[in-house]
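Record Carbohydrate ABC transporter membrane protein 1, CUT1 family, 290 aa.
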Amino acid sequence: MEKTVNQKAWFLVLPVLVLVAFSAVIPLMTVVNYSVQDTFGNNQFFWAGLEWFEDMLSSQRMWDALARQAIFSAIILAIEIPLGIIVALNMPKRGFWASLCLVLMSLPLLIPWNVVGTIWQIFGRVDIGLLGHTLDALGISYNYTQDIRAAWVTVIVMDVWHWTSLVALLAYAGLQSIPDAYYQAAKIDQASRWAVFRYIELPKMAGVLMIAILLRFMDSFMIYTEPFVVTGGGPGNATTFLSIDLVKMALGQFDLGPAAAFSIMYFLVILLISWVFYTVMVNLDKREGK
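=>
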């Protein structure tokens, strides 16, 4: 006797699918349409085929922006993941102080991205900013609008300040899921602190850390508002990441065809790397389930 499957639950998902279609799929199809056509205005389009994709693949400008973006994301992950783990390991486990730490760690995540950029833009100014004025008083040359190293340091520190809390909270959630019996057994065996971290805490945090890496990679690879507000992509093109370069191409130069092809390749790169992370997470969960 065949088992009857009730498919009525799909009607509950239907509104979400319709919303996604209007907010994501339809705009994506519009971008695809622009990427294979050319226009001279007056809503007149001409078939261009893969011309814009070929131009973008041979464009040194795109590859330079991609290199800056990859370097920025790599630095962000190399700093925020270990720092978030260290913060989570040193947070109180229970009681009032644990609740207070969780609230304080959540505060940076609640600040809008444009406000974060404005805060650090003012914070780093030599004339009125606390950071810029202090460094100037100490005789340290710091000008994020003219010095490339200062601009990079400012953008990186700003992102670390804003998003390390997310990694710390995820790692903390993973630590809280570890039964006390594991620590008691390690204490009986006189395991070192490093051994406890290596063989108990780190494996239990592996799943949430992969989620943290995935989220931080996607966000850092698509970052736009904060560096645009602080540096505007400068000095020169030093902090012109992929998203900033794409906006300049589409809105500043009104090159809709190249910008559409650029955005599709941008989307595919993020999708590919995210799929790799997801595959690793699934395989990790399967190994833990055995």
